[in-house]
Amino acid sequence: MSTQTVLRYNGSAERHFPRQNSLSEKSGPQPLKNIGNVADFTRPQKNKYTYEVVEGIAKWLQERTSIKPKIGIICGTGLGGLTDEITDKEEFPYTDIPLFPSSTVAGHAGKLVFGRLEDKEVICCSGRFHYYEGYNNYQVTLSIRVMKILGVTHLVMSNAAGGLPSDYNVGDIMILKDHINFIGMAGGSPLRGPNDERWGERFISTTHIYNKEMREQAKKAAEECGLGPYLKEGVYCMVGGPNFETVAECRMLKLLGGDAVGMSTVAESLVAAHSGITVFAFSLITNMCCMEYDDQSPPNHEEHLMIGKQRTALIQAWVRNLVGKIQLNQA
Ligand SMILES: O=P(O)(O)O[C@@H]1C[C@H](O)[C@@H](CO)O1
Ligand code: HPA
């Protein structure tokens, strides 16, 4: 399009849609009415979940439960059935907990469950918060910091993910050995912003973020539960979502060394590791990523929920067995 054409078009648009209330028609900056607190727009985003606020939330929970959890569990899409294994349950819907976000995704029940698993005191998030829901990283990782104040030392997390290598199958379980944090590498780390040393150090190493001892225990537990044939270990790629990936994106993720792709977990892992919590995470492979343009089975959320249901019993038995193996003084 030539410059001349553009100018002609602008002229005609102006004729058809005359500007109303144009700021340029009056001199000086124009006030905007009814926009709320100006500071909300003009200052860097603050983490409103300060240490003291998180302490307040934890205290609210402590006043209502006798359970003193050392193990935290976070259930991914369709994996909320894990709470069925918990005994002596005390449940708190997220909507009842002061200052807690609420779950907006199908397959995420939206409650905190305290109780016992294999005779150990646990806290389980049945439903997590995702960046794509519109939550910021402070909201996504709030439950981890609440767990820390409550005394959690070990974290077990699950998620639904798409498989990248050709030797993965739908229904496989992939233990996270490592991750690629696409949001974090682009500046969206949950540890960005002023660092409160009460949580942890400014700069942390992530070389051993997924605890080796727990991974080995999980492999042993998988053999004992009959999950061995479905077990893989690999690299989880965290993307923002909520759209699934294009063919070119899937090919890129595979080329970069990814084994599975999903929209969660990594921010929680980082915040947990930052505060010294031992982290274990696994993905249920709910679909294979589309690596070819003529692929006729693109991923969809309903299918992920269904695969979750099919694997529920096996995964529940496995996680229970793993929790039983955790030595609570192990680092
Ligand atoms: O919470 P997870 O990571 O299991 O959720 C994944 C990503 C999307 O929320 C959803 C896609 O089906 O599953
Ligand atoms: O293919 C996927 N991509 C991203 N997130 C997912 N969660 C389940 N499957 C997928």
TrEMBL record:
Chain ranges of the Nucleoside phosphorylase domain: 70-307
Q: Which reaction does it catalyse?
A: guanosine + phosphate = alpha-D-ribose 1-phosphate + guanine; 2'-deoxyinosine + phosphate = 2-deoxy-alpha-D-ribose 1-phosphate + hypoxanthine; inosine + phosphate = alpha-D-ribose 1-phosphate + hypoxanthine; 2'-deoxyguanosine + phosphate = 2-deoxy-alpha-D-ribose 1-phosphate + guanine
Q: Which GO MF terms are attached to this record?
A: purine-nucleoside phosphorylase activity
Q: Its pathway?
A: Purine metabolism; purine nucleoside salvage
Q: Which residues cross the membrane?
A: none
Record family assignment: Belongs to the PNP/MTAP phosphorylase family.
Q: What is this protein called?
A: Purine nucleoside phosphorylase
Lineage of the native species? Eukaryota, Metazoa, Ecdysozoa, Arthropoda, Hexapoda
